[in-house]
Amino acid sequence: MANAMEEFEALLQESFEMDTPEEGSVVKGKVIAIEAGQAIIDVGYKMEGRVDLKEFAEPGEAPKVAVGDDVEVYLRAAENARGEAVISREMARREEAWDRLEKAYADDARVEGAIFGRVKGGFTVDLGGAVAFLPGSQVDVRPVRDAGPLMGLKQPFQILKMDRRRGNIVVSRRAILEESRAEQRAEVIANLTEGQAVEGVVKNITEYGAFVDLGGVDGLLHVTDMAWRRVNHPSEILTIGETVKVQVIKINKETHRISLGMKQLQDDPWDLVAAKFPLSSVHQGRVTNITDYGAFVELEPGVEGLVHVSEMSWTKKNVHPGKIVSTSQEVDVMVLEIDGAKRRVSLGLKQTMRNPWEVFSETHPEGTEVEGEVKNITEFGLFIGLPGDIDGMVHLSDLSWEERGEDAIQNYRKGDIVKAVVSEVDVEKERISLSIKALGGDKFAEATGGVKRGSIVTVEVTAIEDGGIEVEYEGAKSFIRRSDLSRDRAEQRPERFSVGDKVDVRVTNIDNKSRRLGLSIKAREIAEEKEAVEQYGSSASGASLGDILGAALKGDN
């Protein structure tokens, strides 16, 4: 009996020494039954607890638990009102997960998890018991429109931050994609060589070019390398998703940037330019672009030339090229110069049309009468519009015979239609001189054609003034001053003449510049007297002047 008592005491003592598990720790247990959606687990120490089956399930999967399984659970309380242990499989998993994750974080290792929910600013991820936050920006390399296909998939994540006290974990999926892309890029780039022709898929199109996927790595195909001709926007040539053949132009080993070209795989049209477009030949082209200094004309795909503003028009000098040609217009141009090194062709537009000054000089020789509109009035004359869109100038001195140029120009207004005579055409200097006063000929030159100094002419009195008389000879007007009216002082009176009188006068001067005849009655009288003396005796023979003049007059009669 005593033995039995000792044995019992020893067992009791042993049971006291066996620590009961501490609340708030993870304990081992065995599944002894499954009923009503719960697993009943024996955690030893004569304690059993219940756990909902869903705590044994991974997100989106069926619970994995069976009678006889050994499991770890978290002991929240040793006994509840029903005398059962309060246990949790989920909390045990969380503790377990945190230990594992902290180690992975310290080692900078990837962890596996599954996205299972959506929250503000991102998603929730189950990392095998611990819940982490995946910010929207960390889901993929490019913004993701629909994360549906990623939900519930087991995949690797990188831990960016964790704080066990607060229960915070932040993870990234993007960091892993970038890493694998970098590896993939490095591999693709290692297999590429400059000058190699490869196929790729157009992924993206921008203003300045297109990005082409060469199988995990993108290359930039610049707009200037797409074709030999001018391309205004890459979308003229490419569409997204299209497979294109390109040449690797350059690989930058440091930045891993790849430059691609398409035109390099085609023949360079410039190799044939000199043969196809000889100097001075005329071709039809299309205006592709207009700038302040000229217009670009495409002679064939890939070959463009510039028509400089100075070669656009014979007549429109300070005009913007856009006023002369328009984009897409077909024009005839002449090849003026080819620079193969600079890939430049200089073209002329005006050279395909005849020089209008040349045409004018052929159709309007000097002396031709023309009619045109007064386009402009300047301090030195009038500009008059002529056929062929050119102007002629009437200098002040060519406006009128009678008036000073400064006065005569006051009679004209812009827009007046006037007649003039062509006096000179200078094709080189692109100048046409006109004369208005020469219309109807030169009256003075015609009137004085046969007159010399010393001639005696008959004039008609047209006006009487205090200082003398105004007379007219064959339409040319002149003025005889008082002192020239007679050799006799008493007879130098203008009033002894009447308008309409015919008077013989001597020409003392012909001034073509001022277009005036110098006339004198006094000079005629003196000349007559001198002649009479010579004819009818010298003053030394004793005959008086009265006798001589009498004889001379008799002889005249």
UniProtKB/TrEMBL annotation:
GO terms for molecular function: mRNA binding; structural constituent of ribosome. SMART domains: S1 (SM00316). Residues 24-90, 108-174, 195-263, 280-350, 367-437, 454-522 form the S1 motif domain. GO terms for cellular component: cytosolic small ribosomal subunit. The keyword Transcription regulation does not apply. GO terms for biological process: translation. PROSITE patterns: S1. Keywords: Repeat, Ribonucleoprotein, Ribosomal protein, RNA-binding. InterPro entries: NA-bd_OB-fold, Ribos_protein_bS1-like, Ribosomal_bS1, Ribosomal_protein_S1-like, S1_domain. The keyword Signal does not apply. It comes from the Bacteria. Belongs to the bacterial ribosomal protein bS1 family. NCBIfam families: PRK06299.1-2, PRK06299.1-5, rpsA. This is 30S ribosomal protein S1. The gene is rpsA.
